[in-house]
Specification:
122 residues; 2 domains; 2 strands; mainly alpha; two-stranded antiparallel ribbon
Length: 122
């Protein structure tokens, strides 16, 4: 697949290019939901989230904490979990498309308004 975004894509950051071909040689699985606070609590014994609810995504955690503490503790119970690579993540998010969103291009209306996000992001 082609990873990255075109220079003229609205909302594009400089580190999202240049577009280049990527081959993912091994299949992988990706959760279709974020890590919940309930899962984090069960594995880590604490819930650092500001907005507490067992079914909400865990927040207030750093990437390093996930890599160094959470994943090793989770893998002691169920081996094989890793965070996806940048290529794996982008491939999954694009869902076979080459547009900014899997639902099509992103159209910005004003500084903080992207109507196409409403159906998929909130």
């Amino acid at each position: 697949f082609r990873m990255g975004s075109p220079k003229d894509e609205p909302g594009r950051y400089d580190d999202e290019g240049p577009r280049h071909e990527v081959i993912i040689r091994q299949g992988y699985w990706l959760f279709d939901t974020p890590c919940t606070q309930a899962l984090w609590q069960a594995v880590m014994g604490k819930n650092p989230s500001r907005f507490q609810s067992p079914t909400r995504p865990v927040e207030q955690v750093r990437w390093k904490e996930v890599q160094d503490d959470f994943l090793p503790a989770l893998n002691q119970r169920i081996p094989g979990f890793v965070l996806p690579s940048e290529a794996q993540w982008e491939y999954a998010c694009r869902a076979g498309t080459e547009t900014a969103l899997y639902t099509g291009p992103i159209d910005l209306v004003g500084a903080n308004n992207a109507p196409a996000l409403g159906a998929i992001a909130w």
